[in-house]
Amino acid sequence: MHGLGGTRHTWRHLIGPLAATHTVIAPDLPGHGDSDVPGGDYSLGAHAAALRDLLVALGHTHATIVGHSLGGGIGLQFAYQFPERIDRLILISSGGLGPQLNPMLRAATLPAAQISVAGLAYLPRPLIRRLLPALSVLPGVVARQDARVVADALHGLADAQQRRTFIRTARTVIDWRGQTVSATGHLGLLEELPVLLAWGANDRTIPPRHEHAFARRLSAPHLAEIADAGHFPHETAPERLLPPMQAFLDSTRPFRYAVADQHGVLPQQSDRTPGSTTRPAEGEPN
Questions:
Q1: Closest Cα to residue 121, out of 69, 171, 165?
Q2: Residue 99: which domain range?
Q3: Using alpha carbons only, what angle is made at residue 52 by residues 199 and 236, rounded to the nearest 5 degrees?
Q4: pLDDT tier for residue 194 given thresholds of 50, 70 and 90
Q5: In a domain, 32, yes or no
Q6: How many domains does the chain fold into?
Q7: Would you say residue 58 has pLDDT above 70?
Q8: What are phi and psi of 266, to 5 degrees?
Q9: Which pLDDT score, from 0 to 100, does residue 274 have?
Q10: What separation in angstroms does the CA of 102 have from each of 79, 107, 121, 269?
Q11: What is the CATH number of the domain that holds 165?
């Protein structure tokens, strides 16, 4: 699962090697790339349900979920909503692990974002590729290693529908202060799920301390820090990311969900978003 504003092509360096031993499915998120826009719901829950529907349509009952950035947040949401369908979880520079976020992405949620993003998207791609590395010395700007990837993503937002999807999706998980959705309240549900955390040591989009803090709260995390990489290690350093991914897949057993195992690990009501009310069925005691 790719990140916000991305497409399935972000995985082009990993699909071939992984497909030698696994079935690999790399979708465009709803409203991204070649996928149709969603029916109005751009939330993590809706994206997780769309992923479930895709697996069902393709005849797969369960899968290892690999998610980058927003896709990591979707993977975490998928594990929470559909634990019976997940084997393992690989989070690459994942969202949903803390509030801090690059100011450029926070700005995408402001009222004038449509105009600002359109202005950047229509700049010539070579110009953006030259500007971003020069600006990388400033706080809050993308890492130098990510300049080409970000320039290509911005170029894709020249399409008005892609731009609307980008902003509407961003506003479901981000506001001007940072990330608004967190998976930390559901960590108990991941206790037995094999999880690989991978990130670039020079990530300027989501701070690496999110992965460090998340790892401390898991009982047996698998970790892969990619030196001299930014927010997109799967694009800028795939040769260093692929070995820990393959080792993780080879060395872990698929998770198998049992309802009894979840007793006592569900988050308290204050941790749930949104809240819920349960009404007993007719004839059942209150």
A1: 165
A2: 8-259
A3: 25
A4: very high
A5: yes
A6: 1
A7: yes
A8: -65, 145
A9: 37
A10: 26, 9, 18, 30
A11: 3.40.50.1820
